[in-house]
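<purpose> Linking amino acid order to shape
<body> The protein record starts here
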Amino acid sequence: MSNNLLQGKKGIIFGALNDQSIAWKVAEKCHEQGASIVLSNAPIAMRMGEINKLAEATGAPVVGADVTSADDIKKLFETTMNHFGGGIDFVLHSIGMSLNVRKNKHYTEMDYGFNQKTLDISAMSLHRVIKTAWDMDAINDWGSIVALTYIAAQRVFPDYNEMADAKALLESVARSFGYHYGKRKNVRINTISQSPTKTTAGSGIKGFDGFLTYADKMSPLGNASAEACADYCVSMFSDLTRMVTMQNLFHDGGFSNTGVSVELMEMVEAQLGA
C-alpha cells in the first residue's frame, strides 16, 4: 500500500542483485511510495544479476559503478544529477563482500591483502560515496543516507569472519560523516542493523541457516524480513525521520536486547533430553 511517503524524492540505490536482495526490495518500496530512483551495482554484479528486470519494473536507469573507484562514483553522481536535473534526496548503501570468506580463510588465518579489499568494498566505499556527494553538493538539504549492517559489529559470530570488522568500520563512518554532513546541510546518515536475511551474499556465510534459526528463536517478534527492512528504509528516507542521524538502528525483532528466550531454552532442553 502506498502512502506517497517519498513523493517527489529522488535517490540512488546501491546493491540490488536479484529479488532476494534487500536493496531490490527497497527499490520496489521506494518506487511504490512515489520516489524516482537510479540503480547502481558493480559491473560484474550487473552481469551476474537480474538488475535490468528491476529497472524495467521501476522505470529506473541503471548506472554501473565500482565503489572502490572515486572516478566511477563521480560519474554515477554526475549521470544521476543530469537524469534528475538536480540534487538527490536519499542513498541506500547495500554493499558487502568478504574475500576471506569467499576463499574459506578462517579469521585466525586471515589474508591481509584480501582483508584490505574487503574493508575497502564493504566499509570505506560508504565514505567514498558520501565524500563524492559532499564534494559535488549532490544531496539536497535534509537528505538521508542509509547503510545496511549487522549485529556482528558488536557481538562475536565466529563464522561471520572479517565482515564483522567491516561492519564495525561501516557504522563508524556513518557516525563520523553524519556529524559533518548534518552540520553542513542537515543530511542525516544512519545504519540499519538487520536480522540475518536469506540473500545471495548472506547465504554464503558458513552456518547461515543456523544463524537464521537461532536469531528467529531469540527474537520476540521473530526475524525481520527483507520486505520489512525495505519499509524501514522508506521511513528513514522520508520526512518523518528528519531528526534521526548518526544512529545504528536495530531492525531485528528485538534480538539485540534479548539475553535468552524461552523458545531457545526449550530447544536446548529437548536436545539434552534426547
About this structure: Residues 10-273 form a domain with the Rossmann fold fold (CATH 3.40.50.720).
